[in-house]
Request: fold
Amino acid sequence: MNEVVRNPLFGLLLCIFSYQIGLWVKGKLNTILAYPLLIASIIIALLLTISGISYEDFSQGGDIITMLLTPATAALGLTIYRQRALLRKNLFPVLMGCLAGAITSVVSVTVLCWVFGIDQILTASLLPKSVTTAIALDLSEASGGLRDVTMAAVIITGIGGGIINHCLIKLFGIKNSVAIGVGMGTACHGTGTAKALELGEVQGAMSGVAMGITGIFTAFIFLFL
Amino acid sequence: MRYLSQLGVILFLCVTAETVVKILPFAVPASVLAMLLLLALLFSGLIKLDYVEGTADFLVNNIAFLFVPSTVSMFFRLNLVAGYMLPFLFICIFAACLTFGAAVLTTAGLMKLLQRGEETAANE
Reply:
């Protein structure tokens, strides 16, 4: 049994199988809260905990999937290229939207951490949580935060923010596809972009642009902290 | 074969980006740089749409699935904030909503403002 679970294909298969269940549940329930990514991850986490299979064994295959995130993000270049006319027309609002989001993220985290009496190390770990992982980890370390805590914050922001923001779009009847994309990419980085792609190609393309620009803006804001 | 060569082009851009970010004096994710590289090459015409289209669409259409292992890892990291679990979750999600709101309102507001300006100029 140990040889089976240590085989990288096991982790790969588990992810595919669980994600298919997630898609099936989403199809059956047809609600925003049935998010296949979250359902699949909960299934795997429960399975690992109950069966006693170590996370390290699972990640042998999981890491192969994670590795594909780089080419998938690169491929977003094509999605953005297809929306080049729309982006060119709205470049200034998109840039300003990203800047407003980046400032709001840093300010709101600082204020909320102060309200909850969270210490300086944890605050530094939380501050870059809205940007894409690679930038967030570097910014966290540079400002005295903990990489593992930042990693968890980045993922919770992406998943939780993605679901809640999707609810907000429905609740307030937001129709502007460009603004929705910018909001998703600015607030919830790559995971938000995955969610935005579910809403449409314009939303996905703008989210991909916003994810990159917000990362750069946030890194710039950190120079003044 | 077409898909394989398309994957080759995308991976080449990723490896190039991974190499460049190691030289740069500031933090830029290789994935974002590879995305910008592809965009620049498409704009310049050095890469045609059919050099990447099928494989790129497959990767983008399944991007949410690729986040599954990272999300699983989150469940095993939550013990790091055991004493602050609720405020931690609240801050992550509430700040994401505020950030989303600020970005959406600014973008939509400016788009409307610019559109109104264009309409006024056209009427004059």
Notes: The longest helix of chain B spans residues 85-123.
